[in-house]
Design a protein that fits this description.
The protein is an all-alpha fold and 293 residues long. It has helices at 3-18, 21-37, 44-68, 70-73, 91-112, 115-135, 142-162, 167-190, 192-197, 203-207, 209-228, 238-261, 265-292. The chain starts with a helix and ends with a helix.
Amino acid sequence: MNARALAVSTTAGDLISLTKPRLSSLVLCTTAGGMYLSRGDLSAPKAFATLLATAGTVGAANALNCYLERESDRLMIRTRSRPLPSGRMDPQVALWFGISLAAVSLPALALAANWLTAGLGLLALLSYVFAYTPLKNRTWLSVLVGAVPGALPPLMGSTAVEGRVGPVGAVLFAILVLWQIPHFIAIALFRKQEYAAAGMRSLPIERGDELARVNLLAYVLALVPVTLWLYPMGAAGPLYLACASLLGAGFIALSLQGFLRQLGAAWARRVFAYSIVYLAALFAALWVDVGLL
């Protein structure tokens, strides 16, 4: 590979990394779950186009987030090697990449699905970039604000199919809101020193680890019964109910262990890892179960 080709490949890879592919893939799974569980008529090509446009919208939000947080990213071990803090990319490139991606993806979302879904996508992008991102350096309450755009994708999947905010979409939205808070509290606990060095506010930094553990447990206790609600609604069957119950019991037990024993970073890292497995397994159970209904 010659130097020009290598440079193009590196730049393309850096642009893709701005969209945070691993995070975006999880978002797409929840969007697809919202589509799959909802009743309506959405052709396979339109469903694919909706997912592609949603990926573009999420990628745009992430790219703009990287642009705005490029200075604080230099101060954190896990982010300092990203294209902007490492100096590999001009910030203006990232800025216009994010703007261009949003300018293409949001109209595409309206065409592929409907204006309601595109409006929710716009709300997710604006609240993530212009509310959650700047609040991260001001107050730990940013996690509550950030939970909203993070929970909108499954609702967008549902509205793409139904053309309205239905009960299934609303419950999926609630699940994602409640899931995100213990997930991010866990990150804040085991990355407390990094957050402090970068000037980012979090519940452990502002109010202490003990209150953080209390909040983590409280939100997990609120989350589990909401996940079970899909069964009496008729949106899921007994297989999902069993899986959600077992997964929820494990989440509660792990959270309760940390609360009772006043555990620290190693426990918080386990909670973080379990939360990812929990959400993926929960939606996998939904997919399988609904397919059997």
